[in-house]
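Check these lines:
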Amino acid sequence: MDLSGFKQNIYESGILSTPMKELSSSSIFHASSLPNKLLQTSTHDRLKSVTNASHNASKLIPACFPTPNPPSPNFAARFRADVVQLVEANNIHKHSDTCYKYWNANRGDKKSCRMRMPRKLIPVSTIDPDTGHISMRRSDPWINSFNEYLITACRSNMDIKLIWSGSDAKALVYYITDYVTKMSLSFHDTFALVQKSITSLKTASNQTDTESAIEKSRKLVLRCYNTLASQQELSGVQVASYLMNWNDHYTTHKFEGLFLIQIERYLQTQLNEIRTKQKLKHSVHDVTDDDVYDNEETIDGDDNNDEEHFQIQSAESDKKYVLVNTIVDYQYRSEILKDICVYDFTAVSIEENVNQKGRPPNERYPFQKQHPQTTAYLMLKYSNLHLPILYGPQIPRRDRDKTRERYSRTLLTPFVPWRTDADLCDFNRTWEDALKSRQHLISTYSWKIIENIQLLHEYKK
């Protein structure tokens, strides 16, 4: 844009900081028309208008002021004043309930601000030569970190940080990924809303004893849905997507759940039984590891570890459902699949009816004769590989001694081929020793998954 013939506004109120033509109406989009109006009024009224403009300016927040104009002679001073105004108005931290969102006094948590405020004063900016961490000079414990040019351009609050080290970059990736994929309602909030719906339905005055169970169930489901839907937070992108009748998600893979902890329970129970028998038989003192978990907070209260677990799985045609026991299916899989691990087994195959009509679309693998459904079902290879999702307690970090046994067991269970517990761990050895002797059986692809799991732990730091 040609700014020749324009000059900087001279009013001290600070409202008009964009260049404008002296005697004609401005052609700049955000320039004020105040000078032209002033030229059409008397001197007394003109001074009164300027006074009113100054008074109105004092009521505006700094974010509403235009950015100082770089070509102006006194730009440096105006720029510094603008930064000070923005920081004082927007970037000074004040404690709120959000600061203590995850604080729980019942657990004995120390009450501290999750925004890490107030922060330690730093007299001089430094760089840690070992980690590469940059510590910027800080003279106020309550001001969020900011960049003077960014805050002037964006005119909003910020808490900026230099991403210099690899650990900081990992933490940023995890934070962004977790933020964009988080649920709008937590489980306990959802449960509370459902409970509220049930209570309100019970106390409803329009209910009659003549209603059928189906009608009561329909009303209950409808009431729960309406309650949850009313509390659902939707972004503008989601709303636009629904209005345009577009999909609400896009994925490159299909997913299949793998309840890993159930398989761990089964293997540990079998191993403990063998150890007990050997102890009684040979009077050898072997430690029995009865606790599948290393962290008691993950225990769900179900002590019946011998109970079989089944899943309802949709068939390849998506029109029928099959009752699936992953442990039994994997143990008695076809001999052709003997070298496949649990993780890959979940990703490539699905249980299907033997008597399905039509030309076999995909590769099929019969179960061994020991399988209870060997005459009725077989394994069908997916048209496209599915991505297993591990349900249950997360795989521990590999660098913690207190969870080393669980870590070793959790790696052996999904990533090493087996049919019985003896294929993974001998009764007189620990899981850690078993992993060392069998880690060569883990495929290169599986090692990449294991490394990614470890990276996820590092991202959470």
Observations:
- Residues 6-88 form one domain.
- Residues 1-51, 290-307 have pLDDT under 50 and may be disordered.
- The longest helix spans residues 260-282.
